[in-house]
Amino acid sequence: MNQPFSYKELAAKIKDVFINQDQYKMFKHVEEFKTGNKFLGDYFIFVIFESRGDKPPTFYTVCSPFDLVTEKAPEQALVFENGELILNTDFSHYTSVRTGLMDTLVVQSVGNTDLKDKSILYIGTGKIAIESIKGLKEFFPELDQVDFYNQTKDSKEFGDACKKLNINTRFAELDNIGKYDFIFCHTSSQEPVLTEEHKKLLKKGVLITTFVSSSEKGEVEYGFYDTSRANVLMDLDSTPIVAKELQVAIDKEIADVRKIGILKDLFENKFSLNPNALYTIYRSTGTPMQNVAVLKLLLNR
Fold first, then answer.
1. Residue 60 CA neighbour count, 13 Å, CB half
2. I need a surface site. Which of 15, 62, 196, 239 has the fewest CB within 10 A?
3. With 70 as the cut, is the pLDDT of residue 213 above it?
């Protein structure tokens, strides 16, 4: 798919929308359909209202129906302004793009300017991981090697994407997780991929990102959000509502919500990382903020 904007343009727009998020009002709803107790499908909808002063407001909508028969969940975006539909587009590709780019944004925002001689591990190698590596390469052209872990020990699409970017790839076992400076998790796992045993092996100062929203347990065990030992970052104050394992860590008083940084504060340099923390972990579930950023760029094309 021809993408009408660069990763750098999208990154700048995402930061701008997060910083100015107070001008937006958001609504999210998931309606489930059942016959008796049998689940048949659902309908997911994000609506974002942008106030524009004396001008008519803008309504951004991203919706996605899912059914068990096809097991497909297409995403469609619509934008309304001045009583008219001004954009109607397939959004599925852009969901992967905006999600994958968050790795790069966080890598930059915690102070990294050069990835030369840095060790990177991708856990999961699907569409979002591919968009992640594309964004990372645009910002860090010196990147020439990444390792990956997945259940099949092979990933042709991810490998082909990396090859086009002049990045070498190799399979790695999680037993060697202690060698990595960056660990990007992009799986669809229903169980934690990173456990307390892995946490004991981590390299001091490693940055971990985790995104899955289809699991009650997440990609990492809730103990990873220990704010007495780690810098913990999340998208918004409301992230724990969807990130169930993060909420468990808060409920068990492993994570002190007062010490968790949100992206708005990180982007505005209002959240200070603890330099003595053993690691930094960013928990994202995807937000309307990223959707608005993409749609604003599409409207300007």
1. 21
2. 196
3. no
